[in-house]
Design brief:
- The complex is a heterodimer of chains A (about 290) and B (about 200).
- Chain A is α+β, with helices and mostly antiparallel strands and about 290 residues long.
- Chain A is built from six helices and eleven strands.
- In chain A, the strands form two sheets. In chain A, strands 3, 5, 6, 9, 10 and 11 form a six-stranded mixed beta sheet that branches.
- Chain B has about 200 residues and is mainly alpha-helical.
- Chain B is built from nine helices and no strands.
- The longest helix of chain B has 29 residues.
- Chain B starts with 7 loop residues before the first helix and ends with a helix.
- The chains are: A alpha+beta (about 290), B mainly alpha (about 200).
- Chains A and B meet through α1, α2, α3, α4 and α5 of A and α1, α3, α4, α5 and α6 of B.
Chain lengths: ~290, ~200
């Protein structure tokens, strides 16, 4: 073991993202070439996760561990192992036993020949992230809702998902159901977003944020049903400004959206560029209420 | 046509020919079995490097890196025998920087919403998980089981106590701290595999 406390500190800084870009690049070069250093880095990572699980890290370090080391599914799995070990270790205080000489670990290469090519072809599920909780707004005599003023789900005491019966409703009028979505998918959601469409909705309006994609001037949008059939498609859509939020706004008849799963696929077009696939949104339409 | 964010890797990872992949293996080693071992080792390291950079799809990005290297090899670039890692590292940095640029473009949208999402990892381990871990611990040689539990038992203490606990363990074993860390890490790696298999049943 040639590693020392300097490596120890350097790796801790690297894992927490505290090094400059140049320093991090240099560390990574060494990590690829030096197996012992790499293994030490994995060991320090495990220690950081164990300290995180125990709550013994400073708040800033805690946040860095959460963002970097526990960001991926594999990282969260390691964190759960650390948490479990902490729990069992606390419950079952280990008997103090002398160490016995360690036998050399068997290092049978886990060749996955059958999976090599598949590994290159494999695609992890690309989940999508909705920027706002989609929610419904019934438009009767009210102006269209604006994305920027939409409260987040956790700020709303009683989410207005269920239809609100009008105080005087001599006859049900068709309403427009408005849903706000986003085409960003840096980190995916495991679940499919549900669009709760009231049965009396005549029109469904989708407001799809394209914030942060200012280089894309127009968009193609396609809504497909669970059988991959095109329900409706739009080309060369220009984003609108909804109170400072750049968004695509499209309407489609509610009758085109019976209950079921749908995919919303978008392509963005930069000036002089070819269409660029954006991460698809998967939604499930649920018909709700009598109204 | 490209795809935005880390998802870009998914589309790109599909683009490698069997010939390019074979060329990649030949460059790693003329011995196919050795080439396979090197492939696995480099891929594992690349996945971990992308993870440590906070990427959420590290396996995809490692595949993108391999594919780009494979394509360059197909174009006639040769890896220098003593240091194939340097080339992979350079390509991986480019891939990562592309991810960063794409992430920056999306950042304003993400910053406006519930981002980052609530951390699911705050959950306590389930009874099933703890039971699996108990079984896996029971399969370990006693010295390894005691080592990992004592090492983690120190986590119930704060700061100095925890450090002293580990120093004591290292003294008992007659090894430096970092060697102790690695020894514990190897045990944890076994447990990780075992628990995963147990939970999958």
């Amino acid at each position: 073991m040639n590693s020392n406390s300097t490596d120890d500190e350097m790796l801790r800084g690297y894992l927490l993202g505290e090094l400059t870009e140049e320093e991090a690049d240099a560390v990574e070069g060494r990590l690829l070439m030096e197996d012992e250093l790499f293994e030490l880095s994995e060991a320090i990572e495990s220690d950081l996760l164990a300290e995180y699980a125990q709550g013994s890290l400073a708040p800033a370090e805690r946040e860095l561990v959460r963002q970097r080391l526990a960001a991926s599914p594999q990282g969260r799995e390691r964190l759960m192992l650390a948490r479990s070990l902490n729990v069992l270790a606390a419950r079952e205080k280990a008997a103090v036993l002398p160490f016995v000489p360690r036998t050399a670990p068997s290092r049978q290469p886990a060749l996955r020949w059958a999976a090599l090519a598949a590994g290159l072809l494999a695609a992890a599920g690309l989940a999508w992230f909705t920027w706002e909780q989609s929610h419904i707004v019934h438009q009767e005599n009210r102006p269209a809702p604006v994305i920027a003023e939409t409260p987040r789900a956790h700020e709303v005491p009683a989410p207005p998902r269920a239809p609100v019966a009008p105080s005087v409703a001599p006859a049900p009028q068709p309403v427009k159901a408005v849903f706000q979505l986003a085409l960003t998918s840096l980190r995916g959601s495991e679940s499919v977003e549900k669009l709760r469409v009231p049965t009396r909705a005549g029109t469904v309006e989708l407001q799809i944020s394209v914030e942060g994609m200012e280089d894309l001037q127009s968009f193609h949008l396609t809504v497909r049903n669970g059988r991959a059939e095109t329900v409706k498609a739009w080309t060369a859509l220009k984003p609108k400004d909804l109170n400072g939020v750049r968004a695509l706004v499209v309407d489609l008849p509610a009758e085109l959206l019976p209950a079921g799963k749908y995919e919303i696929q978008a392509q963005g077009i930069a000036p002089g560029g070819e269409p660029e696939d954006l991460s698809p949104l998967e939604v499930e339409v649920v018909k709700e209420g009598n109204g | 046509m490209s795809q935005r964010g880390e998802g870009a890797s998914r589309t790109e990872s599909l683009r490698v020919t069997p010939e390019a992949f074979e060329a990649l293996l030949r460059q790693l080693s003329p011995d196919r079995e050795r080439a396979g071992e090197l492939y696995e080792a480099i891929r594992h390291k690349l996945v971990r490097l992308f993870e440590w950079r906070g990427c959420t799809s590290p396996e995809d990005l490692a595949d993108v890196t391999f594919n780009r290297v494979a394509r360059r090899l197909e174009e006639g670039v040769e890896l220098r025998a003593p240091d194939p890692y340097g080339y992979f590292c350079g390509v991986a940095h480019l891939v990562y920087k592309e991810v960063l640029r794409k992430a920056a473009r999306e950042h304003s949208a993400l910053a406006r919403g519930d981002w980052p999402p609530p951390a699911a990892e705050e959950d306590e381990p389930s009874d099933a998980r703890l039971e699996c871990l108990r079984r896996c611990l029971a399969k370990l040689p006693p010295d390894q089981r005691d080592l990992v539990l004592r090492y983690h038992h120190g986590n119930s203490d704060q700061g100095e106590n925890n450090i002293r606990n580990r120093q004591q363990l290292a003294r008992e074993a007659g090894i430096p701290m970092n060697a102790l860390r690695i020894r514990v890490h190897r045990v944890r790696r076994k447990l990780e595999t075992c628990v995963h298999a147990c939970l999958s049943r």
